[in-house]
């Protein structure tokens, strides 16, 4: 064992729970982060998918992220409270081209508040706008996203699970915020560079997109 490994000590583990409507890209986001891949076909998550990914934060700190990808249809389910319980981080994910997926985050967040109201430590909550590769189809205005963050003290993220744009940085920032580690601009830019994915050739599933174009938040 090297000196640096001895100094690191045991890995830190963080539980991150990904919540939001079906088709907003939660599984694609988790898969892109954990496995650096993007699935061509939309497949509904039933119940829960689970991913593990080890990252290194400044100070040579090893952190293992447990990413709990919760199916969009579980909002009224009996198991949802158990999925959320003990999470250090919550990702509220929506599709920037789908107003309803953004509006419904209020319901998801209410469940989080109910589960965590008596917890000694509150989870960090991140608002994640997915599908920025479809910026030309955006219906959820950026200022509405930012206002929701400010009102609830969320951290703010915009990503594309399809291209990989900002995905690793999103999870890295969330983990760093939970652990009280400050990432400087150079570290964030380096992270973007190291994890830049190329997935533009992969067709995005269009379910639930076209009919949303007339809506504007």
Give the class from helix and strand content and strand pairing.
alpha/beta
Instruction: List segments where confidence is low: pLDDT < 50 over at least 5 consecutive residues.
Output: 1-7, 197-214
Q: Helical amount among residues, as a percent range?
A: 25-40%
End-to-end Cα distance, whole Å, is 55 Å
* Cα-based radius of gyration, to the nearest Å: 17 Å
Extended strand count? 6
Shape: globular
The largest pleated sheet is described as: 6 strands, mixed
For the largest sheet, list the strands in their spatial order: 2-3-1-4-5-6
Secondary-structure element pattern, one letter each: HEHEEHEHHEHEHH
State which percent range the strand residues make up. 15-25%
Helices, by number, come to: 8
Could you tell me the mean pLDDT?
83
Family: Belongs to the small GTPase superfamily. Rab family.
Enzyme class: hydrolase
Cofactor: Mg(2+)
Membrane topology: Lipid-anchor
Task: Write the SSE topology.
Elements: H1 3-8, E1 12-19, H2 26-35, E2 48-57, E3 61-70, H3 80-84, E4 89-95, H4 99-103, H5 105-116, E5 124-130, H6 142-152, E6 155-158, H7 167-178, H8 185-194
Parallel strand pairs: 1-3, 1-4, 4-5, 5-6
Antiparallel strand pairs: 2-3
Family: Belongs to the small GTPase superfamily. Rab family.
Membrane topology: Lipid-anchor
Protein name: Ras-related protein Rab-28
């Amino acid at each position: 064992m090297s000196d640096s490994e001895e100094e690191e000590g045991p890995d830190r583990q963080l539980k991150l729970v990904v919540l939001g409507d079906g088709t907003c890209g939660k599984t694609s986001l988790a898969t892109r982060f954990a496995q650096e891949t993007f699935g061509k076909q939309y497949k509904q998550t039933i119940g829960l998918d689970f991913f593990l990914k080890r990252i290194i934060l400044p100070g040579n700190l090893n952190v293992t992220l447990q990413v709990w990808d919760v199916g969009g249809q579980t909002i009224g389910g009996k198991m949802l409270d158990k999925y959320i319980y003990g999470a250090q981080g919550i990702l509220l994910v929506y599709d920037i081209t789908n107003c309803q997926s953004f509006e419904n985050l209020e319901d998801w967040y209410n469940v989080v508040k109910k589960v965590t109201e008596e917890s000694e430590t509150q989870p960090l909550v991140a608002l994640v706008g997915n599908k920025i590769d479809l910026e030309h189809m955006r219906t959820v205005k950026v200022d509405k996203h930012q206002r929701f963050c400010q009102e609830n003290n969320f951290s703010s993220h915009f990503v594309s699970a399809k291209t990989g744009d900002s995905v690793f940085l999103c999870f890295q920032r969330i983990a760093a915020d939970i652990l009280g580690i400050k990432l400087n601009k150079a570290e964030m830019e380096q992270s973007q560079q190291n994890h830049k994915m190329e997935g533009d050739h992969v067709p995005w599933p269009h379910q639930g997109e076209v009919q949303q174009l007339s809506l504007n938040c």
